[in-house]
Design brief:
about 120 residues, Cytochrome Bc1 Complex, Chain D, domain 2, 6 helices, about 55% helix, about 5% strand, globular, binds heme C, heme, Cyt_c-like_dom, metal-binding
C-alpha cells in the first residue's frame, strides 16, 4: 500500500512531459503566423482561445461565473454558434462583437481545442 503513491508520481511527471512535447509538436505542425510587427506567434488552438478562456474558462470554469462553459462542447456546435453570432453582429451584443474578429481557420482551431478539453469541477 505504502509504496503505491510514490510509485505513481514519476509517471505523472512523465505524462506531463509527454503532453508538453505533444503540444510543442502540434504548435510546430500548425505553423506560425506573423503579427504586423513581425512577431512569430504559433497558431495553436490553446493560444488562440486565450481570449475566450478569460470568460468561458478552460477545463475549469471561471470561479463564480455563469457564462456557459465550452469545455467538451462539440467543435461544430461552437463554430456554428460563432457564425451565428457574427451574422447578427452590429447589435452591440457581446459575442457578436467578439465573433466578427475570427476567420474560419482560427475558429476551427479554437473549437477543436475546447472540444478536446475534459470538463473539470470548479
Ligand atoms: C467578455 C466575455 C466573453 C469572451 C471574451 C468570450 N465570450 Fe463567448 N460568451 C460570453 C457570454 C456572456 C455568453 C452567453 C451570453 C451570450 O450569448 O451573449 C457567451 C456565449 C458563447 C457561446 C454559446 C454557448 C452556448 O452554450 O450556447 C459560444 C459558443 C461562445 N460564447 C464562444 C466564445 C469563443 C470561441 C470565444 C473566444 C473567441 C468567446 N466566446 C469569448 C462571454 C464571452
Amino acid at each position: 500500500m505504502q509504496s503505491r503513491t510514490p510509485a505513481r508520481k514519476p509517471l505523472r511527471v512523465a505524462g506531463a512531459a509527454l503532453l508538453g512535447m505533444a503540444l510543442a509538436a502540434s504548435a510546430w505542425a500548425e505553423g506560425a503566423a506573423s503579427t504586423a510587427d513581425g512577431i512569430d506567434m504559433p497558431s495553436t488552438g490553446a493560444l488562440r482561445a486565450a481570449t475566450c478562456v478569460t470568460c468561458h474558462g478552460a477545463a475549469r470554469p471561471v470561479p463564480g461565473s455563469r457564462i456557459p462553459r465550452l469545455a467538451g462542447m462539440p467543435a461544430d456546435r461552437i463554430e456554428r454558434a460563432m457564425r451565428d453570432y457574427a451574422a447578427h453582429a452590429g447589435t452591440g451584443e457581446l459575442m457578436g462583437q467578439i465573433a466578427r474578429g475570427y476567420d474560419a481557420r482560427t475558429l476551427a482551431l479554437i473549437a477543436q481545442w475546447y472540444a478536446g478539453l475534459k470538463p473539470e469541477a470548479p
